[in-house]
Fold this sequence. Notes:
Blueprint: H1 7-21, H2 24-37, H3 41-66, H4 70-77, H5 81-112, H6 116-132, H7 136-161, H8 166-172, H9 181-192, H10 196-206, H11 215-244, H12 255-293, H13 300-304, H14 306-324, H15 328-352, H16 356-359, H17 366-392
Amino acid sequence: xxxxxxxxxxxxxxxxxxxxxxxxxxxxxxxxxxxxxxxxxxxxxxxxxxxxxxxxxxxxxxxxxxxxxxxxxxxxxxxxxxxxxxxxxxxxxxxxxxxxxxxxxxxxxxxxxxxxxxxxxxxxxxxxxxxxxxxxxxxxxxxxxxxxxxxxxxxxxxxxxxxxxxxxxxxxxxxxxxxxxxxxxxxxxxxxxxxxxxxxxxxxxxxxxxxxxxxxxxxxxxxxxxxxxxxxxxxxxxxxxxxxxxxxxxxxxxxxxxxxxxxxxxxxxxxxxxxxxxxxxxxxxxxxxxxxxxxxxxxxxxxxxxxxxxxxxxxxxxxxxxxxxxxxxxxxxxxxxxxxxxxxxxxxxxxxxxxxxxxxxxxxxxxxxxxxxxxxxxxxxxxxxxxxxxxxx
Length: 393
């Protein structure tokens, strides 16, 4: 008998992962690297999509088959590895969440003229409301889908009005004239690094969409999530390319806002406010949910008060932002840091795929393992190249 899948949960998990990826940092990184690399950024995006898809397929499949969260799998691979991975993901998630809160606050500032700090507090309250709601899982799925579609629709409009040189972008996607290690590391890190790839996988665990029988659906969910994030990245890239190819300079204090404003004037600026608010608020939800999912299996008390701890996590992120200020540089740095976390996380998952006490009778396809090892090697190489670039410039 053909297995019935809960497509609503699977699509919700895909949108949760994609929404976690498409945060304020995603908008900022895309604008900055488009200005730096021009049409050649298309090659970086194409390369990152391939790396993202391989990493995500491996991680989602192994978590689904093992039917355990990543930290428990890691602890079975190497004692203590799960705690180390959780520490990295939790810290990365907190740092990202400060930027997400800032982005959401900035969005409300652009839309309604209130201060960024006030906007951050209002956004934090809305995110907390989603977790307080009794049907939080369903609310999170619906919210992620709605915000994801809204962001794509608005980015499509700006990409259209900016009149980009698409033919040149297509050529440069396979024949670049410029390349940047840090761009690849940051873009991959900002899409599947740190907590992001685990957000959808852990949502499937909570919704009990696991096991070998569910693998075809897990594959579709994982690839759909990458597809959604990639469509948004491409739309933002061609929108930014249309603007910078005219010789216009982006405002370094808010490069993403410049793209929208230069493409479509004051209306474009308001559209940016809505896009960055949607990006910020949905990433706050994804980051908080996933960061806490990495520690809740360690102690019954954490599991019992998991919702309250999630709310505190959001409040602490908001408070740190209000005390520190707007972290545009942090948004770029955290993407790179999450890129450095990815080879550790993926490497552990690939070892787990060959431990029968973790994955039972499941046989990992050889092509997935080999390509997964390729991603681990590439990300380590890119990380080394990025660190070298930092110290030689």
